[in-house]
């Protein structure tokens, strides 16, 4: 597509504050479920962002309108240094555009595929980053529900941030019908269609800890049914003989407690402070982490941190019977501009909320 230098299309939807013509599209840096992710430059400010470009026909064909609209709505309510924050959202006749913080380090899945395993020091730092982001979400009544390596991205300093809020939800007492997620990282209570809360996110952290330590996930299978059968058949627990050289038994205990099949027995079921107070993390320098003044034990290489083979065309999975004009109303109100928000909701205020001094609940 190259740099966006074309004249504006006068069929742009809803007269957005911004359009794609306000940005230079520099190069593709990733692929999402509905289109490509670009590195872009806002022409006026010369600032760089990651821009998700989502084909509306593909969103509708995959019955994911509620997911993309839910993500935009939730992202407009949250802001935190360990989350990939939304800066702008707009649309035209064919696409939705979501401008996010630019993370140049690639996602954790890519680096896991390159390294196969991580050290205990690296894993502890990754977990601390994730827990810090989850703490903010959970204090504000949100469960992510799809924590996995693909949805964790590195900044240039080696700090991880949480992204992809398509199936995130405000916590509700009756949510057993919501069974979305990724098999392998999905908590048993979600797979079994039970009501669930913040503990589902900590189960996923446990899966990743197990994966970083051993090089494999605790429950394997070719599909959701097989993985569910594995979970129901046995409770995975790391034994002393499973712990590789260089790893502590405290780390194994932490992972084991996160992987408990029953949510009421799982570390984190009582909140993020329970996780942070485990012996493995108790002495971690949380304040320095939030300030991002610690040296990360894993630094992404400076070259491109993604697999170029994933960038294919998106003409598949589109319902040929759909008409562009008939679907436009499904995306009404997609526009967002973070720079028009009241300055009192800046990042420093959000950090105070995270500290527990103010834990307002987000409206559903």
UniProtKB/TrEMBL annotation:
One Pfam entry name: Pkinase
Annotated InterPro entries: AGC-kinase_C, Kinase-like_dom_sf, Prot_kinase_dom, Protein_kinase_ATP_BS, Ser/Thr_kinase_AS
UniProtKB keywords: ATP-binding, Kinase, Nucleotide-binding, Serine/threonine-protein kinase, Transferase
Domain Protein kinase: 23-281
UniProt superkingdom: Eukaryota
PROSITE patterns linked: AGC_KINASE_CTER (PS51285), PROTEIN_KINASE_ATP (PS00107), PROTEIN_KINASE_DOM (PS50011), PROTEIN_KINASE_ST (PS00108)
Ranges of residues in domain AGC-kinase C-terminal: 282-346
Amino-acid positions noted as binding ATP in the UniProt annotation, renumbered to this chain: 52
GO molecular function ontology, one term from the record: G protein-coupled receptor kinase activity
GO BP of this protein: G protein-coupled receptor signaling pathway; regulation of signal transduction
Family: Belongs to the protein kinase superfamily.
Protein name per Swiss-Prot or TrEMBL: Protein kinase domain containing protein
Origin species: Blepharisma stoltei
Phylogenetic lineage: Eukaryota, Sar, Alveolata, Ciliophora, Postciliodesmatophora
């Amino acid at each position: 597509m190259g740099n966006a230098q074309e004249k504006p299309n006068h069929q742009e939807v809803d007269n957005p504050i911004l359009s794609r013509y306000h940005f230079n599209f520099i190069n593709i840096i990733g692929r999402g479920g509905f289109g490509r992710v670009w590195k872009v430059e806002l022409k006026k400010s010369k600032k760089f962002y990651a821009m998700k470009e989502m084909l509306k026909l593909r969103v509708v064909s995959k019955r994911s309108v509620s997911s993309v609209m839910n993500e935009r709505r939730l992202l407009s309510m949250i802001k935190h240094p360990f989350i990939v924050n939304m800066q702008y959202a707009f649309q035209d006749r064919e696409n939705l555009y979501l401008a996010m913080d630019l993370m140049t380090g690639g996602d954790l899945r890519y680096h896991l595929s390159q390294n196969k395993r991580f050290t205990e020091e690296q894993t502890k730092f990754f977990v601390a980053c994730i827990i810090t982001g989850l703490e903010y979400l959970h204090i504000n009544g949100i469960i992510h529900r799809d924590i996995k390596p693909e949805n964790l991205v590195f900044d240039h300093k080696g700090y991880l941030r949480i992204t992809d809020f398509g199936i995130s939800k405000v916590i509700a007492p009756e949510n057993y019908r919501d069974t979305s997620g990724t098999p392998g990282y999905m908590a048993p209570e979600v797979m079994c269609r039970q009501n669930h809360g913040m503990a589902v996110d900590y189960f996923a952290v446990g899966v990743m800890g197990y994966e970083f330590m051993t090089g494999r996930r605790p429950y394997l299978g070719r599909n959701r049914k097989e993985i569910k059968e594995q979970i129901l058949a046995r409770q995975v627990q790391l034994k002393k003989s499973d712990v590789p050289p260089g790893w502590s038994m405290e780390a194994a205990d932490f992972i084991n407690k996160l992987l408990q099949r029953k949510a009421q027995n799982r570390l984190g079921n009582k909140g993020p402070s329970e996780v942070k107070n485990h012996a493995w993390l108790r002495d971690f320098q949380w304040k320095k982490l939030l300030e991002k003044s610690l040296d990360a034990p894993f630094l992404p290489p400076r070259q491109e941190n993604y697999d170029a083979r994933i960038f294919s065309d998106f003409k598949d999975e589109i319902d040929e019977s759909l008409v562009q004009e008939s679907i436009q109303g499904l995306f009404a109100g997609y526009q967002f501009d973070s720079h028009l928000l009241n300055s009192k909701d800046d990042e420093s205020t959000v950090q105070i909320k995270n500290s527990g001094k103010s834990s307002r609940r987000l409206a559903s």
